[in-house]
Amino acid sequence: MNDRPTVLAVFAHPDDESLACGGTLARLAEEHARTVLFCASRGERGAATGPARDDALGVQRAQELRCAAEALGVSDLLQFNHPDGDLRWADVTPLLAEIVMAVQRFRPSAVITFGDDGLYWHLDHVGVHERTTAAVRLMGAEAPPLYYVTMPRTIMPAIVANAAARGWTAPPKGFWSLAPESFGLGAVEPTIVMDVSPWAEQKLGAIRCHLTQTGPDDPFGVMTMDQARRWLGVEHFHRAPTDTQMRPFLEELAMLTPNSKFHIPNSTL
Known about the structure:
The chain is α/β, with parallel strands linked by helices. It contains 10 helices and 7 strands. It has a single domain, classed as 3-Layer(aba) Sandwich (Rossmann fold), CATH 3.40.50.10320. Strand 1, helix 1 and strand 2 form a beta-alpha-beta unit. Helix 1 packs across helix 7, helix 3 crosses helix 5 and helix 7 crosses helix 9.
């Protein structure tokens, strides 16, 4: 049996991975776990100038994703090209099949994805939550444990307020036009709190890779390392109700201090 555990993270767009659980992915990589990042789209509608499809933007965001994956020590990057903005309705069966095949191929000890609130009710995020949940539940008792990311409601307001105090103004469109209070607004309370403060610098570096979404002078651009450890150094999850009989992977990791060694054999399906 391979004693190197594997974690599969399934998200919708380039940048989701870094903000949602970049610290956990970096922590796992340092512990010599195999981290597999599945990104369903290239984010070609993620421009701050408007929602129109921009294939050149999609190419650039795919490059940014590779930068972030390298910063986080991701072992395997699976980049797909499902239509940004329509992930809840378009290519439903192919996307489901691809997630199932990824689980079968990598046999992860855990799968991480969005909760049913999509962090801030983004419908692409909700669609990926639905497809990933369905894929894992199809496997019954042999499925890996499934974890949903969440975020405390105080984090994004604090990050935005810090930038605003330095004179930054949120643009009218794009990621920063979202109300910061919407992050985590409808999330289920976390059951797992992961200390990733030693990896906050890597997480911030990965977030900054996504320049088309953040920009050099945005709230992450002006964040200090002390602030990164305070606001990005803890990540939150709750476990989905499934029939899995595999060990509670993230729960066991979260119980360890960051300087502890983590060795859980990877289970097979």
